[in-house]
Amino acid sequence: MFDLIDLHTHSLYSDGTLTPAELVARAAQRRVTVLALTDHDTTAGCAEALEACRSQGIGFVPGAELTVGWRGQELHVVGLGLDPDNATLRAQVGDVLARRRTRIAAIGAKLRADRTLGGFDPSAAVLAGQAVPTRTHVARELVRAGHADSLQKAFDRFLARRTAGYVPQEWPTLASAIVAIAAAGGQAVLAHPHRYRLSNGALKELCGAFRAAGGAGIEVSLAGISPNDAARLARLARQFGLAGSVASDFHEPGLPWRPLGRFAKLPDDVEPLLSRLTPL
Ligand code: AMP
Ligand code: MN
Ligand code: MN
Ligand code: MN
After folding, report:
1. Same structural domain for residues 87 and 224?
2. Are residues 154 and 181 in the same domain?
3. Do strands 73-80 and 32-37 pair parallel, antiparallel, or not at all (unpaired)?
4. How far apart, in whole angstroms, are the C-alpha atoms of residue 264 and residue 247?
5. 31, 22 Cβ separation under 8 angstroms
6. Which ligand is nearest to the CA of 14?
7. Does the Cβ of 123 fall within 6 Å of ligand 1?
8. Are residues 194 and 222 in the same domain?
9. pTM surpassing 0.85?
């Protein structure tokens, strides 16, 4: 039997489209044996996911994907095996949430001023409808209103850096997120390091800083990653003494190239992050 595990997924408590129960049912269908829920800046779905995992016989790891800033760049830190109700963690995500809401309103104002959109501003709907409003929700509204054919095109045309709706944002520091995850009893994992626009040298500095601040691991086995990137991440894990995590970053069934569950086998010499966790 191949062992499928997944330590990075989203539900509709952030920018996923499935309820935690639907997510867990899908994981069970794919024979995932250990599942973490890691919504952006919230642990609100963890109780539902735990209950669903219990009834399906899946090991559950409570988590969250925290948004941070490092040298002016937005990074994501996944916290795994944490207490969803911890006060320090709550304060951290409360701060991010306030910044998110301000940012989405500012993105809406910029889109409203864009001549090609004819005054379209999805921000009020996104802010009213979402506990953790993200640019993904704005992108979905742009697609729904016919202003883009796909989420990717909505990002590329209206939301990415150097486009009409881009609003830069300061986020809490990398160190503050690692401290909050540790306070909640969790392990901090640097999410999808290959996706940041960082030179090799800067990525090494990031891994060093992450480790020095108390980070435990980096994602190594990721859905859709090139063999080249996978080898690079495994090298970083070894070089900086970081454990390797296994992650789909699943958001929705409509993106089938990012399916739930990854084979648990990591390259030799990379310690599995899972060995530092006790699934519930
Ligand atoms: P936010 O946290 O509001 O900046 O939104 C970030 C989320 O948008 C990420 O977690 C991704 O799910 C999604 N995202 C970011 N950049 C892109 C992109 N270029 N294409 C598609 N989705 C993206
Ligand atoms: Mn997302
Ligand atoms: Mn992410
Ligand atoms: Mn994610």
Report:
1. yes
2. no
3. unpaired
4. 9
5. no
6. 2
7. no
8. yes
9. yes
